[in-house]
Design a protein that fits this description.
Length: 286
């Protein structure tokens, strides 16, 4: 199933797509509103049952007439992976890693489809990065690879906006990856059964002002989703509602000659096969 999280008239809403692609949904306060996707995933709710109930009784929602929100507003952990596509590692001049490079984001960076990516006033080096997101549905520690994908509730897309000069200020990437409104997330959440296991073999692209700047498949990942879950769960307890932002393919702006960074007035699009298009305008920080 495909779920969209939105707001209208100041009220949060949840919608699900029918077979014809039309979304049906309810907002807070309406009879039958099931709650936020955050809460449903964190409590282990049966998303198939909830989706079926929305399709049966909820009115049609025009997603162009509402404000789309990130599928999860407050993930418990936002775990991001650097240098996880072989071609991207090569374009940075590095050897492919033998252990995943992990950094974290915080919820204050998240925006939904259609919201503005913000170029910070202290930098002119905001870069785009198309990424596949895996949403943890069942928690655990020391998860075996054979079981790893059973812990994934579903998938979404992400634009890991990176402020490159701040990323390079130290060996740790936290500052360059956590400017407000630089992490676009959406446009929808797709349950795991709708996609190939682990999101394998999906075409992943980004476009800047309609021009394709990244074009690859998730098969170029060095560490696939199951392997990432194994490594992460060796260290920490994964919990329902955590998300894994799994890395970007080659074609990022910093690796180009001359570098290509986002500018106010630009439009950045991320498209992942089977998920959809995450589209965000770019503005200057007020």
């Amino acid at each position: 199933m495909r779920f969209a999280v939105y707001s209208t008239d100041g009220r949060a809403g949840l919608a699900v797509a029918a077979a014809d692609g039309v979304f049906h949904g309810l907002s807070e306060g309406a009879p039958g509103y099931p709650g936020s996707l955050d809460s449903l995933i964190k409590t282990g709710a049966d998303l198939a049952t909830i989706g079926a109930a929305l399709l049966e009784s909820a009115p049609v929602v025009d997603l162009k007439a509402v404000t789309l929100a990130p599928p999860l507003a407050r993930p418990g952990k936002i775990l991001c992976v650097g240098l996880n596509y072989a071609a991207h590692a090569r374009e940075t001049g590095r050897e492919p890693p033998t252990y995943p490079t992990i950094f974290v984001r915080f919820p204050t960076t998240l925006i939904g489809d259609g919201a503005a990516l913000v170029c910070p006033r202290v930098s002119e080096q905001l870069d785009y990065e198309a990424e596949l997101v895996a949403v943890i549905g069942t928690g655990g520690r020391h998860i075996a690879k054979a079981d790893a994908l059973s812990h994934v509730a579903g998938y979404s897309a992400f634009n890991d906006g990176s402020v490159r000069d701040y990323q390079a200020k130290s060996t740790q990437w936290t500052m360059g990856k956590n400017f407000d409104a630089t992490g676009a997330f959406g446009p929808v959440f797709v349950t795991a059964d709708e996609l190939p296991p682990g999101g394998a073999g999906l075409r992943i692209q980004s476009r800047l002002n309609g021009v394709t700047v990244q074009d690859s498949t998730t098969d170029d990942m060095i560490f696939d989703i199951a392997t990432l879950i194994v490594f992460l769960s060796e260290v920490m307890s994964l919990e329902p509602g955590d998300i894994i932002v799994s890395g970007t393919p080659s074609g990022v702006g910093i690796a180009r000659t001359p570098p290509l960074f986002l500018r106010p007035g630009d439009v950045s699009e991320i498209e992942i096969e089977g998920i959809g298009i995450l589209c965000n305008p770019v503005v200057a920080e007020a």
